[in-house]
Amino acid sequence: MAAAPSDAARARKGILRMWDYTDKVKDHFLNPRNTGEIESPSAVGEVGSLACGDALKLTLKIDENDRIVDARFLTFGCASAIASSSALTEIVKGMTVEEAEKVTNQDIANYLGELPEQKMHCSVMGREALEAAIANYRGGDKTKREIEGNIVCTCFGVTDKEIERVVRENDLTTVEQVTNYCKAGGGCGGCHGEIEKIIERVQGERVKEQMLPPPRKGGKLTMIQKIQLIQQTINEQVRPALRAHGGNIELIDVEGDKVLIAFRGMCAQCKVSDFTMKDVVEAKLREFVSPDLYVEEDTDGAGEMQEHKG
Ligand code: FES
What we know:
The protein is an alpha+beta fold. The protein has helices at 7-12, 23-30, 79-92, 97-100, 105-111, 120-137, 160-170, 175-182, 192-211, 223-243, 266-269, 273-288, and strands at 43-49, 54-62, 68-76, 151-153, 158-159, 247-255, 258-265, 294-297.
């Protein structure tokens, strides 16, 4: 049987059903810049494996001022892998090593206009090759990227640390997205539960970071900050779960450390609302706002947030 024509050959003949690629992706795929290998390079970075379908070797020439004066690549992969590698070399040429260190996979995707989400792992591969090359330049004796963490996805050899990083840097919220960005989860599916736990943990940490109020002298929240944080925690950490079961919650008042709430919808008639109040609402408020808070239900059902008295 004859070998299948390459993506490039099929694209030139116009028979390749392309993804929804931007013109810039198509251009960098059909006319890749900086292909090949630098002779006597200052740094080499290699990632991927042919077994997983993608591989990239990046070579850099770096001058005495730590500036990248040339960058070349060899890759085995799809149109996006070629375009991402080509874009990467164009981005880093002329940068200092310190500047190149800050290049993210999103920078590569942005340079190309955008990449289909199913192909974002190609931009991640570019960023990883760059990191491997910089580590090699800084004195590492290896050119292959060091794998950190414990393998979560055995089908693709992806670790917890790698998954954490793509989730954090790209604000991912689903297993499918994680597969698109680093391939983890794209085989037998046996790692999906573990990936979900990582997403939940990283997103929880992100919310906490975003919710941190500006520090006040003495480290205490003002009453206004406390109310804002309580409202934010209810909106982001509590309400979505209650809504999923046809219920809702309203913040009625805050008096010192007492938080007065009212349940609405299904929650208002729910037999386990006491449990929800203590083990969900109070637990979340203690975790995200202050361990001193306690929650009580507003039994007369006042609907509006009152002026606080604390
Ligand atoms: S172990 Fe991750 S897809 Fe198989």
